[in-house]
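$ fold --in a.seq
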Amino acid sequence: MEKRVLFKSSWLPWLLIAPQMAIIVVFFFWPAGQALYQSVLQEDAFGTSREFVGMANFERLFSDDSYLASFQTTAVFSLLVAISSMSLALLLAVMANRVVRLAGFYKTLLIWPYAVAPVVAGVLWVMLFASPYGVISFALQSIGLPWDHLLNANHAMALIVMAAAWKQISYNFLFFLAGLQSIPHSLIEAATIDGASPWRRFWTIVFPLLSPTTFFLLVMNVIYAFFDTFGTVDAATHGGPGKETAILVYKVYYDGFKALDMGGSAAQSVVLMGIVIALTVVQFRFVEKKVQY
């Protein structure tokens, strides 16, 4: 039978959730409301005067070719970050789950990168690829593959993808490892007795049972790529060369704090928020149907 907790007073449940609700209101609803309000205004750089312009900021955005190009840049970037970070994390989790000796030590080493700030991750990877003295850049040049992320757009995109994915691998690793450890060993042993190869056991038993974890990480990685990678992009490429790596969240910052277009920046943040909400709804509405709980 289902056990339910009954409170003697009607106000106690509200009191218990009050701290969390306060955090949500202050750090989510209030900034979102401010963005919605500012998106329909035209303000000067110092905020001394403002004028209601309605949807003019949004109309100007969608007539700007550079802003439309940032949609494609963000889509490519988020897709590459999500796929690469989740794939490598799953591989590392499978390998770490088989380690017997010093397992805790290896798992701790794999978790450490998650403690690194996005800006630090960006600077770290820039140093590795700094031409001509970066370790990886020097190795590439020695085999005839010159690297220059300051001028080559493909190199710049590869750099921020590697930095952002490396930062997120530890987060994905934690959940994949927990998912692997929750799978009953009896299922794996039964498949082994039946003669299933390790590859077949993984795709027919292990991976389907990891589908709830994979779905959760897919949602979180998309949100991460859209929002939490600003520091990495800013430290690594500053949206360059040109605007080839100016993803949506970086363009919000650049137009607001560099170009001092407060209304346009607020409109961009509203659009970005809408995109993330829409993607999350689509994932839960359609992708979750294929998840096996």
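$ fold --in b.seq
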Amino acid sequence: MTSSTDRIENVVIVGSGPAGYTAALYTSRANLEPLVIEGFMWGGLLQQTTDVENYPGFPAGIMGPELMQQMRDQAERFGTRFITDEATKLELATEAGGVHKVWVGDEVHLARTVVLAMGAEHKKLGIPGEEELGGRGVSYCATCDAAFFRDRRTVIVGGGDSAMEEAIFLAKFSSEVVIVHRRAEFRASKIMLDRARATENITFLTPYAVDEFIPGEDGALAVAKLRNTEGGEDTQLEIDGAFIAIGHEPQSTIVEGQIDLDEEGYVKVDGRSTRTNRPGVFGAGDLVDNTYRQAITAAGSGCQAALDAEWYLRDTPSIETPPSLAEGDLAEQQWGPTESAAPVNLPH
């Protein structure tokens, strides 16, 4: 294990996407010189999105990867530094003013504050055609993409409240919405199920599982191959769009056991703030949000995390830096005075 530097960062942001890049923008403009460990697949779920029509400020819409590049460029303009690699381990201080440690492979970075913005991934069916037709008929967000399927036949795959909510929203655009669920009974609450059943252009197909998505001659989704989970017989459904609504997986494994998580694995924060149970550690974006999961709400919570981190740095005295990063390879290394990051300078 080696240290990349003896510098103690004011802010290390783990993750990217709207939350991470917004947190970087705000902290860099406050002269905190944030370090972003953005991952290999930087930009979050919007890197997998085509047209984004509901992000404010882009009346003609913008491609998801372009939006992420612009956010990244804006943060970089004010001094944000990036490591395009994965954080592999975190050791979070338990005392206010303590130094946190973030590993990237064998290198460790020290930080007075850490913003967690690792996001959440869509749960996938894992069937043939799903990956290949992503953005060409297969989607995971009706709020994002329903308008592209106006007067088209679509399916929702899932049986919980999220699936019902997606179906009801999608029904405002599609000519027909078919809810496909592998069981005859649903996990959705009675009120959500009743609302879906009361929507004229929503129908139900159970107990069926989707086994494959098949493209048409133009390369876009054309057919869903279905299997009856009780009888085993196959059938095919001609469709223009498929929305997968079987849940999300927050990317919180790296902090499990240190940060309080809810029963679904989302990071818990204190009230309307972004504070976690560890002092100087803040959570933002889809990592903490199992309700809205929109780019604009993620960006907003990234702003909150940045402000919470600034205020923590302003108000919390530092604890003396330990003489070594960890026992083992560095146990006998003698450290001189540590180089602190740029002084905190908060304009108000």
